[in-house]
Write a structure and sequence with these properties.
The protein contains 49 helices and 23 strands. It is of the alpha+beta class. Strands 5, 6, 7, 8, 9, 10, 11, 12 and 13 form a 9-stranded mixed sheet that branches.
Length: 1254
C-alpha cells in the first residue's frame, strides 16, 4: 500500500508523489540540486545521491490557503468605487469570521485498489455530489474539491449570523447522506466512511496573484484547526472545535471529548462531537436549567402588556401580539418570563381546583377556566426556502418529537393525537398533517393525498392546519408562539394570514416575534395586521436598556462593582443597551480569563487590568451578517467611512471614492438601512454623518485588510491636512489628522502632528486629550527608534523622548494621576543619565524626581533636598541661570516643609534670578511661596510678598496664575471674616477656573475650601458636607485624604453626628502619620480636641486635653504657626470648663484656673495678631471662651464685657452677608456657637449657668 505524505504544517494526508500540500500549500518534498530526486521534507541529505539539501523554508509562517473553485466564492471590492494606484497589484479582500468544514472519505485508497480508477472516480464523484448538496442547501459554499473530500465555508463571502449552526447542521446531514450511500456500497463489499472537522475563526478572503492571473482564496489559521479536527475525527463522526461549539451549543446535543493538540498552536483545543439537532424540549430544558437567567430588568411595561394579552384568553377573548426588537433585546426572554409567571399562577389554580373538588363534595362549586396551551414554532434562517417550515416545527413540538425518532413512530403518534381531537372524522385531516410533516402514510389513506395536484394539496394543507388550530382552541385557551419570524418562508406566512381571523371567534392568541427587518416578508405582514386587525392587535416594541438598567444587568451577571468603574463603562458602552451583547461581552471576559470565579466565595474577580475589549466571535458574526446584506458597493462605502471614524464627513469620504453621484446614493441607502445618520453641515468638510452603532463601525473597520486600512488612512490624512489652517477654530483636527497618519504608518508626520495636537489640547486645557497625545507620541518614538539607522538619530530621538516625558508628567499631575507622573519622572532620570552630551537635561530630570517635583511622604523630603542641591550645583557649573532659578525655587518649597529657615535665602536668590531673567511666572510663584512661608506669624513680610505678586499676576492673563492669585487674595477676606465674598468672589471662582483648565488638584483644593466656608463658617452644613466628600474623592489620589477628612470631622461634629465624626477621624489618623506638613498633623490634633470636647464625657474631655496639649507643644517648638497655639489654648479652656461639670469639689478650683489661664493666653495671642486665620477656630469663639472662663472665675463685669465683644464680632461678620442670601439665616441659626453667644448675650447683664457645656 503506498505511503501517504503527512504535511508538516497542517498534518493533512496527501497521496504519494505530491510536492505540495493540497490543504495549506506547504512543501511536502525537496528537490535535490544534484540529481533532481524529490526527498521527504525532513531529509537533510539526498536519499538518492547523498548530496546536502538546501534548508527547508520554515513552516511556521505558512498561512493555510484554500483555493476556491469559481469566482462566486469570494466577493472582491468593486473597482468602480474604490480608487486605485498604478503599479504592483495589492492584496484585495476582506477579513471575515467564517466556519470551515473539511470532509474526507476514510478508506478511499482501499476502494481505489478494489474497483480501479474509473469506478473509483465515479464513486467519489457521487459522494462529493451528496456532500455538496447539503452544503449548498444550508447556505454554505464549496471552496475546494479534492480527490476524496472537500473544503466548505459558511460565512466567507455570504454571511449569516447563524453560520456556525448551519455548518454543524450541514456536517450532520453530510454524515447521514454518506452513511446511506455506504449502506448501498456495503452490499458490493466496499467499506466507506466519512470524517468531518468543523472550526470557526478569522479568515482572510482575498484575491491573490499578479496582473496576468488572479485567484480567489481564503487563508487563515482557522483552516489549519479545521484540518486537525477532520484528521482527529472518528470515521462516521463530526469533530467540532470549542470556538464553533460555543456559538452553536444551544442547538445540538453534544458529547464532550476533551482536548487535543494542534500543530502551530501553543494551547490544546477542546473538542466536541455533535450528535443530533436539539429538540424544542431540549431548548426549553436548557433555559430552565441555565443558572444565569437574569431577573426582568427594564421590561416591566412590556411584561405587563403581554400578561394582559394572555389573561384575556381566560375571558375567551382572542388577540394578536406582535413583539419586535433587534437581535438580543430579549424578545424570547420576555415571552419565557411571562410563561414562567403564568405557569406559577397555573400551579396555584390547580391547587384551587383541588380545593374546589373538595368543596363540590359538600355541594359548593367554584369552577376555574382551564389553563392555556402553549405551542411554539421556530423559524430558521436556512429554512426560508422550505414551505411550511414554521408550521412543521410547531407540529413537531406538539407531537413532542424525540431525537432520532423513527418516522413511523411519529406518524403513529400523530394518528393517535388526531383521533383524540376529531374521533372518527380524523381521516379528514390526519393525512394532510402527515403529508405536511413528510411522514409515510398507511395503505388506504395515502390515496387521499397522492392524487392531488400542487394547488389542491395546498388548499388541503391550509384547511387541515386551520381545523387543527380550531380544535385545539376549543379544548382550552391557546397561545401559538412563532419566534424568529423575520426568517419565515412565504408559504408559512400566507398560512398564518389565512388563519388569523380565528382569533375573532376563538380564545386564541397569535404571538409573533420578529426583528424589524424591512427586507423580510413579515414587515409587510405587520402593516397588514395593523390595518385589518386593529381591534385585536397589541404591538410591543423592545427598546435598548438605558445606562442604569444595563449596569443593573451587568452587576447581576458578575457581581456588584466587580469591575472598576472605567472598565464597566467600557463594557456598557460596547453593549449599547443590548442584553445579549452584554451577556456575550461578560462571557468573553470569562473565556479570556479576565474574570475568574473565586472557589471559596463564588464571586467573580478581575485578574488583570483591562484597557480594551475585543468583540467575541458571536457578535462579530451577527454584525457581519448585517453588513453582508448590503450591496457590495454600498458595503465598501461603509467600510471606507469606518476608516474615517465613528463620525465622518462627505468630503473626506470622497477622497476614498471616485464616483461622487454614486457616493450620494450609497449614503442615502445606508441611512435607509439605519446604519448611519445625517447630522449637520460642517464648513470645509461637507455633510457630517455618524454610525448608529459603534460596534457596527468597528466590525466594518476590522473587516478590511490592514493594507487597505493603511492606504485609506493615508488618503484621509492627506485630504484633511490642508484644513489645519483653520485649526484655531477646530483645534481637535490636529489630533484627527495625526491619528490617520499614525494608522497609515507615516511615523514622522504622525509624530509632528501628534505633538501639535497635544499642544493645542493643553492650550484649551483639554488635559486628558493632551495626555493621550503624549502617550501616542512616545509610542511613535519607540517605532522610529527601532527603524533608526544611526546612533546619532537614536540619540536625537531619546532627547525628544525626555522632553515629551516631562510634558506628559506635567499633564498627569494636572489630572491628578500622581503615580503615573512620578513614574515618568523616574524614567526621565534614567534617560538623562544616558544623554551624557546634554548635562542640562540632568538638571531637568533631578528637579522632577519624587521628593522634589512631587512629595508623597515626609521621608522623601530629605532625599528631595539632596537632589535639588545636586541640580543647583550642576546648573551653576553649566552657567544656566534659568535652571539655577528653578533649583532654588524647589529648595524654597522643601526648606519650608522642613521648617528650615534656609527657605529665606534660597527664596531671595530665586526671586533675584527671576527678575533678572524677566521670568514673571517664576517671580509670582516664588513670591507666593515666600508669602506662604512667612505666614500669619510674620504678617508684614507675608503681605509684602502678596502685594508684590498681585500686579504681576494680573498681567499674565493665565488661568493657572489666576487660581493662585485668587487663593492669595482670599487671605485678607478670611482675616476680616468676610466669608460671603470669600466664597462667591474667590472660592467659587477658583473652583470654576480649576474645572475649566482640568486641574484636578486645584479643583479638589477649591472644593475643600468652598466646603469649609459654606459649612463651618456660614452654617450650610449639608452643602458643605457634600463639597468636602467630593473633594475627598479627588484629593485622596493626589495629596492624600487628610485635609478633606479633617473638614468632614468638623462638619459631622457641628451637626452632632459623632459616630460619623469618629469614623472620619479613624480614617484620618493613618493619613496624619504620613503627612509631610506639620500643619496637617497639628490640624489632626485640633479637630480631635474639637470632637472630644463636643462629646462631653470625662474620658473624651481628657483626650481633648491631651490632643490640644500636643498641638500647643508643636507651636511652642515653632513647628507650626502661633495661630495653632491660639486655637489649642481655646480648646484647652473649653475642656477645663466642661470638666467643671463632672469634677469633684476639690478639682473644680484647678479647672477654673486652668480654663482662665488658657483662654487668657489665647486672647493675648489674638490681640497680638488682630485676626484669626485657621480653620479650626474663629475670633468670636476665642472671645466667648474667654468670657465663660472669666465668668467661671467670678470676674463677672469682665466676662460681660468680653461677651459683648464676642457678640459684636459675630454681628460684624454677619453684616457682610446680604439679606437675600440663605447664609444670612444659617450663619446665626445653624451654627451652635452663634446660638450660644446670642442666648448668653440676651441674658445680660448677668450670665446664667456659666459652667455649662458650651
Amino acid at each position: 500500500m503506498p505511503t501517504l505524505l503527512i504535511c508538516p504544517n497542517c498534518s493533512f494526508e496527501s497521496p504519494p508523489g505530491m510536492l505540495f500540500c493540497g490543504m495549506c500549500g506547504a512543501r511536502l518534498a525537496r528537490a535535490c540540486s544534484t540529481c533532481g530526486f524529490h526527498n521527504p521534507p525532513e531529509f537533510r541529505f539526498c536519499g538518492m545521491c547523498g548530496a546536502p539539501l538546501e534548508p527547508a523554508p520554515a513552516a511556521e509562517g505558512l498561512l493555510p490557503a484554500v483555493v476556491a473553485q469559481g469566482a462566486s466564492s469570494v466577493e472582491i471590492p468593486a473597482p468602480s468605487l474604490l480608487t486605485s494606484e498604478p503599479g504592483a497589484t495589492q492584496l484585495e479582500g476582506e477579513r471575515r469570521v467564517a466556519t470551515i468544514i473539511i470532509a474526507d472519505v476514510r478508506g478511499s485508497t482501499q476502494i481505489l485498489e478494489q474497483v480501479g480508477t474509473e469506478r473509483w472516480v465515479e464513486l467519489m464523484n457521487h459522494v462529493l455530489q451528496l456532500l455538496e448538496a447539503e452544503v449548498y442547501r444550508l447556505g454554505g459554499e464549496i471552496s475546494q474539491f479534492r480527490g476524496d473530500g472537500l473544503v466548505a465555508f459558511f460565512g466567507a463571502s455570504a454571511v449569516h449570523e447563524d453560520d456556525p449552526e448551519r455548518a454543524v447542521m450541514a456536517a450532520l446531514r453530510m454524515q447521514r447522506a454518506a452513511k446511506a450511500y455506504a449502506a448501498e456500497l456495503a452490499g458490493q463489499g466496499l467499506e466507506l466512511s466519512l470524517r468531518i472537522g468543523v472550526n470557526t475563526g478569522d479568515v482572510i478572503v482575498a484575491s491573490v496573484g499578479g496582473q496576468s492571473y488572479r485567484e480567489d482564496t481564503a487563508m487563515g489559521e482557522a483552516i489549519t484547526v479545521a484540518a486537525r479536527m477532520e484528521s482527529s475525527a472518528e470515521p462516521g463522526t463530526v469533530l467540532v472545535s470549542e470556538s464553533t461549539y460555543r456559538l452553536a451549543q444551544p442547538y445540538f446535543a453534544w458529547e464532550p471529548l476533551g482536548e487535543i493538540s494542534v500543530k502551530g498552536l501553543r494551547e490544546p483545543v477542546t473538542v466536541y462531537r455533535p450528535l443530533a439537532l436539539a429538540t424544542d424540549t431540549d431548548l426549553i430544558l436548557r433555559e430552565e436549567l441555565y443558572r444565569l437567567t437574569p431577573p426582568l430588568i427594564g421590561r416591566e411595561r412590556e411584561f405587563a402588556q403581554l400578561v394582559r394579552c394572555i389573561e384575556a384568553l381566560q375571558g375567551r377573548r382572542g388577540g394578536i401580539a406582535l413583539i419586535t426588537g433587534e437581535k438580543g433585546m430579549g424578545k424570547s426572554f420576555l415571552v419565557t418570563q411571562v410563561r414562567e409567571h403564568l405557569t406559577r399562577e397555573a400551579m396555584l389554580r390547580a391547587e384551587a381546583r383541588h380545593r374546589d373538588a373538595q368543596l363540590a363534595a359538600v355541594g359548593v362549586e367554584a369552577p376555574l377556566p382551564p389553563d392555556a396551551l402553549w405551542l411554539r414554532g421556530r423559524c430558521r434562517s436556512y429554512d426560508q426556502s422550505w414551505p411550511y417550515s414554521m408550521w412543521r416545527d410547531m407540529l413537531q413540538n406538539w407531537l413532542n418529537m424525540r431525537r432520532d425518532e423513527p418516522r413511523e413512530a411519529l406518524r403513529d403518534r400523530l394518528r393517535e393525537q388526531t383521533q383524540q381531537l376529531w374521533g372518527e372524522d380524523f381521516v379528514e385531516t390526519y393525512p394532510f398533517l402527515a403529508a405536511l410533516l413528510a411522514l409515510p402514510l398507511e395503505e388506504g389513506i395515502i390515496e387521499r393525498v397522492s392524487h392531488l395536484d400542487a394547488e389542491s394539496l395546498k388548499r388541503q394543507f391550509f384547511h387541515a392546519i386551520r381545523s387543527w388550530v380550531v380544535a385545539l382552541a376549543q379544548r382550552s385557551p391557546l397561545v401559538l408562539f412563532f419566534s424568529d419570524v423575520h426568517w419565515v418562508d412565504n408559504t408559512s406566512l400566507e398560512l398564518l394570514q389565512h388563519c388569523l381571523p380565528l382569533c375573532d371567534t376563538q380564545p386564541l392568541l397569535w404571538l409573533v416575534v420578529f426583528r424589524p427587518d424591512r427586507s423580510s416578508p413579515v414587515w409587510h405582514f405587520r402593516h397588514y395586521v395593523g390595518t385589518e386587525y386593529p381591534h385585536r392587535l397589541t404591538q410591543i416594541s423592545i427598546p435598548p436598556l438605558n445606562a442604569a438598567e444595563s449596569l443593573e444587568l451587568l452587576d447581576w451577571l458578575i457581581g456588584v462593582r466587580t469591575l472598576p468603574e472605567r472598565v464597566s463603562q467600557l463594557v456598557l458602552q460596547r453593549a449599547e443597551g443590548n442584553p445579549y451583547y452584554l451577556h456575550e461581552l461578560a462571557n468573553a471576559l470569562i473565556a479570556q480569563g479576565v474574570l475568574v470565579r473565586d472557589t471559596d466565595t463564588g464571586e467573580w474577580q478581575l485578574t488583570r487590568p483591562l484597557t480594551s475589549l475585543d468583540l467575541p466571535d458571536s457578535l462579530q458574526t451577527l454584525l457581519l451578517a448585517r453588513l453582508d446584506r448590503l450591496e457590495a458597493e454600498v458595503r465598501h462605502v461603509l467600510q471606507a467611512a469606518a476608516v474615517i471614524g465613528a463620525v465622518f464627513w462627505q468630503k473626506a469620504l470622497r477622497a476614498l471614492t471616485q464616483d461622487e453621484s454614486a457616493l450620494k446614493q450609497h449614503l442615502t441607502q445606508l441611512q435607509r438601512e439605519q446604519l448611519i445618520e445625517e447630522r449637520q453641515l460642517v464648513p470645509d468638510l461637507g455633510m457630517e454623518y455618524a454610525f448608529t452603532s459603534l460596534l457596527l463601525r468597528e466590525v466594518a473597520y476590522d473587516s478590511l485588510l490592514s493594507t487597505q486600512r493603511a492606504s485609506y488612512h493615508l488618503k484621509v490624512a492627506e485630504a484633511l491636512e490642508p484644513l489645519l489652517d483653520s485649526s484655531k477654530e477646530h483645534p481637535q483636527r490636529y489630533g484627527m489628522v495625526a491619528y490617520h497618519y499614525r494608522q497609515a504608518g507615516s511615523l514622522e508626520k504622525a509624530l509632528d502632528l501628534t505633538l501639535k495636537a497635544a499642544e493645542q489640547a493643553r492650550r484649551v486645557y483639554a488635559n486628558a486629550e493632551a495626555l493621550e497625545h503624549y502617550s501616542h507620541a512616545l509610542t511613535l518614538l519607540d517605532s522610529l527608534k527601532q527603524n533608526a539607522v544611526s546612533e546619532e538619530a537614536r540619540y536625537v530621538l531619546d532627547r525628544q523622548r525626555l522632553s515629551i516625558l516631562n510634558l506628559r508628567r506635567e499633564t498627569a499631575y494636572l489630572l491628578g494621576e500622581i503615580e503615573s507622573g512620578r513614574n515618568d519622572a523616574r524614567t526621565m532620570l534614567e534617560l538623562a543619565q544616558q544623554l551624557e552630551r546634554d548635562p542640562a537635561l540632568m538638571v531637568d530630570a533631578l528637579l522632577e524626581q519624587p521628593g522634589v517635583g512631587s512629595i508623597q511622604g515626609r521621608e522623601e523630603i530629605v532625599t528631595g533636598v539632596d537632589l535639588a542641591y545636586r541640580a543647583l550645583e550642576l546648573a551653576r557649573q553649566l552657567g544656566d541661570a534659568h535652571r539655577e532659578m528653578r533649583a532654588l525655587m524647589a529648595l524654597v518649597n522643601l526648606h519650608n516643609l522642613r521648617n528650615d529657615p534656609a527657605w529665606r535665602w534660597t527664596g531671595e536668590q530665586a526671586l533675584e534670578l527671576a527678575r533678572r531673567l524677566g521670568d514673571q511666572r517664576s517671580e509670582v510663584t516664588t513670591l507666593l511661596r515666600m508669602g506662604e512661608a512667612y505666614g500669619a506669624d510674620d504678617l508684614e513680610h507675608s503681605m509684602a510678598c502678596l502685594e508684590a505678586a498681585l500686579p504681576i499676576a494680573k498681567g499674565l492673563h493665565d488661568k493657572s496664575a489666576e487660581i493662585r492669585l485668587l487663593s492669595a487674595l482670599g487671605t485678607p477676606l478670611e482675616r476680616q471674616g468676610d466669608y460671603y465674598r470669600l466664597l462667591t468672589e474667590m472660592g467659587e471662582k477658583r473652583l470654576q477656573l480649576s474645572r475649566e483648565i482640568g486641574n484636578r488638584y486645584a479643583e479638589g483644593s477649591a472644593l475643600m475650601n468652598c466646603g469649609q466656608i459654606r459649612g463651618l463658617w456660614l452654617g450650610d452644613y449639608a452643602s458643605g458636607l457634600e463639597l468636602e466628600e467630593e473633594a475627598l474623592r479627588i484629593l485622596e489620589n493626589i495629596v492624600g485624604r487628610l485635609y478633606p477628612l479633617l473638614r468632614l470631622v468638623q462638619l459631622h461634629t457641628e451637626m452632632g453626628n459623632f459616630g460619623a465624626a469618629l469614623a472620619a477621624l479613624a480614617e484620618a489618623q493613618p493619613a496624619g502619620e504620613r503627612e509631610i506638613r506639620d500643619m496637617g498633623r497639628a490640624g489632626l490634633g485640633l479637630v480631635s480636641a474639637i470632637l472630644f470636647n463636643a462629646m462631653g464625657d470625662e474620658a473624651h474631655l481628657q483626650q481633648a486635653l491631651d490632643a490640644a496639649g500636643w498641638v500647643h507643644r508643636m507651636a511652642t517648638d515653632s513647628l507650626v504657626s502661633q495661630q495653632y497655639k491660639m486655637a489649642a489654648l481655646c480648646e484647652i479652656a473649653e475642656s477645663h470648663l466642661c470638666l467643671l461639670v463632672v469634677a469633684d469639689e476639690n478639682e473644680q478650683a484647678a479647672h477654673r484656673v486652668e480654663a482662665l489661664n488658657a483662654s487668657g493666653a489665647a486672647f493675648d495671642l489674638y490681640q497680638g495678631f488682630g485676626f484669626v486665620q485657621i480653620v479650626e477656630c474663629t475670633s468670636e469663639e476665642i472671645l466667648f471662651r474667654h468670657a465663660l472662663a472669666l465668668q467661671a472665675n467670678g470676674r463677672v463685669e469682665e466676662a460681660q464685657d468680653m461677651l459683648r465683644r464676642a457678640h459684636a464680632e459675630m454681628q460684624r461678620k454677619h453684616a457682610f452677608i446680604p439679606e437675600s442670601s440663605i447664609f444670612y439665616h444659617t450663619y446665626l441659626e445653624a451654627i451652635a456657637l452663634h446660638r450660644e453667644i446670642q442666648i448668653a448675650y440676651d441674658g445680660l447683664p448677668s450670665l446664667a449657668n456659666p459652667t455649662g457645656n458650651s
